[in-house]
């Protein structure tokens, strides 16, 4: 008899931004235009609108603004604002797929590659996220995102990212325990059980199996072999390939904890990585930022609001705190 485990018992995503009632995109567009018209800018109005509308509502406001005033909201914001506040407001006004495509392009353009950004975006993304990002990237830059990733990475890391950028992860929410055990056996035979590593087995399983399936594989691996699958990955891989595979496993186990760690890294130590902070806040506020806040406090015994407040100031700080709810 098939032994199935329903995965829906694991996590319920809770956002921090919810749909505004009695939403009127034209009224919001007019209010934004008025706030930026003439001398000075009413930043409070920008925050009250852009930080309190969902992703779809913000896109509607953008369309209404262009229809009403003949230019993109992004252009208007850039002409009036500066610094972290400008970057956050612009990120909020863009369609998410376009914003994330720009983030990927920034990570692989110029001198060097920001592997951490590529890992975060591609290893944690859903199929829909990645497919929409691919389409936005093609429209923005005139060629596939995959081409640029291939041109800027190499080896096992390149193979992993190319697998992920296809957006072909299994989305079946029901887990067959016997299939999970079969994958557990394949992973053991491809790594710990032999001299050398069959990297393609790790890539094919970790890049294509469903998140609930991977959770079961991690459980079965430790039960069968006495050490974690993460330990096996760390023993068999190195550098960015290792980081990427571990990120996939972390997201399968607890995506909220993964992003809590990313946020902590962005705001701890000397200086703030505002780019990472903005990207995570904007991409997760409509999805699960409330869960991430809870994980942050559980892991670090401090509220995310307190740490963000201590690491930012002015309108930028007020906007970040508004997104945190």
DSSP summary: helix tally: 19
Give the helix/strand class: mainly alpha
CATH superfamily of one domain: Annexin
Q: Taking all residues together, what is the mean pLDDT? A: 94
**First-residue to last-residue Cα separation:** 47 Å
Description of the molecule:
By secondary structure, this protein is an all-alpha fold. The protein has a domain at 174-237: Annexin V, domain 1, CATH 1.10.220. Helix content is 70%, strand content 2%. The protein has 19 helices and 2 strands. It has helices at residues 25-36, 43-50, 55-69, 73-80, 83-93, 96-108, 115-124, 127-141, 145-152, 155-165, 177-190, 199-208, 211-225, 229-236, 239-267, 274-284, 289-300, 304-310, 314-324, and strands spanning 4-6, 174-176. A two-stranded antiparallel ribbon has the order 1-2. This is Annexin. Pfam families: Annexin (PF00191). GO terms for molecular function: calcium ion binding; calcium-dependent phospholipid binding; phosphatidylserine binding. Belongs to the annexin family. It comes from Daphnia pulex (Water flea).
Short description:
With 325 residues, this protein is mainly α. The protein has helices at 25-36, 43-50, 55-69, 73-80, 83-93, 96-108, 115-124, 127-141, 145-152, 155-165, 177-190, 199-208, 211-225, 229-236, 239-267, 274-284, 289-300, 304-310, 314-324, and strands at 4-6, 174-176. Helix 2 runs parallel beside helix 19.
List the main descriptive attributes of the protein structure presented here:
Annexin V, domain 1; 70% helix; mainly alpha; 2 strands; Annexin; 325 residues
How does the SSE layout of this entry go?
Blueprint (H helix, E strand, L loop, with lengths): L3 E3 L18 H12 L6 H8 L4 H15 L3 H8 L2 H11 L2 H13 L6 H10 L2 H15 L3 H8 L2 H11 L8 E3 H14 L8 H10 L2 H15 L3 H8 L2 H29 L6 H11 L4 H12 L3 H7 L3 H11 L1
Antiparallel strand pairs: 1-2
Helix pairs in contact: 1-2, 1-3, 2-19, 4-5, 5-16, 5-19, 6-7, 6-8, 6-9, 7-15, 9-10, 10-12, 10-15, 11-12, 11-13, 13-15, 14-15, 15-16, 15-17, 18-19
């Amino acid at each position: 008899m098939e032994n199935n485990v329903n995965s829906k018992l694991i996590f319920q995503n809770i956002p921090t931004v919810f749909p505004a009632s009695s939403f009127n995109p034209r009224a919001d567009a007019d209010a934004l235009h008025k706030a930026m018209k003439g001398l000075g800018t009413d930043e409070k109005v920008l925050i009250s609108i852009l930080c309190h509308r969902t992703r779809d509502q913000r896109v509607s406001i953008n369309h209404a603004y262009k229809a009403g005033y003949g230019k993109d909201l992004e252009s208007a914001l850039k002409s009036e604002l500066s610094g972290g506040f400008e970057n956050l407001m612009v990120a909020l006004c863009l369609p998410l797929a376009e914003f994330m495509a720009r983030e990927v392009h920034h990570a692989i353009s110029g001198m060097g590659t920001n592997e951490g950004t590529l890992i975060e975006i591609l290893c944690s993304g859903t199929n829909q996220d990645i497919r929409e990002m691919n389409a936005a990237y093609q429209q923005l830059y005139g060629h596939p995102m995959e081409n640029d990733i291939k041109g800027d990475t190499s080896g096992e890391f390149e193979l992993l990212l190319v697998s992920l950028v296809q957006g072909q992860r299994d989305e079946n929410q029901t887990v067959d325990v016997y299939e999970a055990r079969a994958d557990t056996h394949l992973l053991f035979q491809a790594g710990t059980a032999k001299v050398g590593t069959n990297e393609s087995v790790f890539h094919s399983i970790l890049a294509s199996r469903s998140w609930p399936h991977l959770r079961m594989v991690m459980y079965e691996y430790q039960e069968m072999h006495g050490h974690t699958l993460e330990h096996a990955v760390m023993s068999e891989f190195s550098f960015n390939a290792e980081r990427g595979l571990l990120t996939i496993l972390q997201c399968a186990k607890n995506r909220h904890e993964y992003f809590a760690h990313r946020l902590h890294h962005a705001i701890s130590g000397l200086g703030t990585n505002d780019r990472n902070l903005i990207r995570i806040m904007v991409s997760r506020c409509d999805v699960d930022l409330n869960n991430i806040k809870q994980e942050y406090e559980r892991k670090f015994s401090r509220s995310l609001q307190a740490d963000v407040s201590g690491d930012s100031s002015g309108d930028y700080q007020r906007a970040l705190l508004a997104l945190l709810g």
